[in-house]
Design brief:
The chain has 210 residues and is mostly helical. It is 68% helix and 3% strand. The chain has a two-stranded antiparallel sheet. A hairpin with a 2-residue loop joins strand 1 and strand 2. Helix 3 packs across helix 7, helix 5 runs antiparallel to helix 6 and helix 5 runs antiparallel to helix 8. The relative contact order is 0.18.
Length: 210
């Protein structure tokens, strides 16, 4: 895992240093919906799955379900990863100060700065955490992880299609979201191996008399 974390941090740094250049512009123009209203409508629906309303709602539902199962440690882990990650994403935007693509190409309203993509990063944080921490069986967890990955990819790509992010913003967002999730899982004593989450958070409570 340390090598994976180093690779993700490197990817984030490369996207920060070399983003916004000609390759970024070319990829943006290639993916941009422009006058294709049907594509823009689909992208607007997808991008909502990485918006704060949806993500805060599913995080609250996930935390509530974990509390119902009396998994206190896992509840704190879910909230800690997602909420601290959201705060760090906002800080990165202010620190990097990268501007978004030109206003005239935006197909949805945006207010914050560009790097990293908050939708891509937060979608990765939230959907992946839910996929890792909620399912109890390895089979269910594997399916949930794949679903979270594809959903995060779709949300990130929708931001480029809508003209509100450079591709490097999105890649940087994915890299940070995955980095922060893996780092805090590791620091908390959890390990992810072949789609299976191992650790005290998923140990069954002891029965009386045992």
């Amino acid at each position: 895992m340390p090598i994976a974390l180093l690779g993700l941090a490197t990817a984030w740094g490369v996207m920060l240093l070399f983003g916004g250049m000609e390759l970024d512009r070319a990829l943006l123009l290639l993916a941009y919906a422009g006058d294709r209203e049907d594509v823009a409508i689909g992208a607007r629906w997808l991008t909502e799955l990485g918006g704060y309303r949806v993500l805060l709602a599913v995080t609250a539902l996930g935390a509530g379900w974990l509390l119902f199962r009396r998994e206190w440690r896992t509840t704190l882990l879910l909230l800690g990863i997602t909420l601290s990650g959201r705060a760090l994403i906002d800080w990165q935007k202010i620190w990097t100060g990268r501007v978004r693509p030109e206003d005239q190409v935006h197909l949805v309203q945006v207010q914050s700065l560009s790097f990293p993509s908050g939708h891509a990063a937060n979608a990765t944080l939230v959907w992946l955490c839910l996929a890792l921490l909620l399912p109890r069986s390895a089979r269910a967890r594997t399916f949930a992880i794949w679903g979270a990955v594809w959903l995060s990819l779709a949300v990130g790509l929708s931001r480029v299609v809508l003209g509100v992010h450079w591709p490097s913003d999105v890649i940087g967002g994915w890299a940070f979201g995955l980095f922060w999730t893996m780092l805090l899982l590791r620091l908390s004593g959890h390990s992810v191996d072949d789609g299976t989450l191992l650790g005290p958070a998923h140990s069954l409570p002891e029965r009386e008399g045992e």
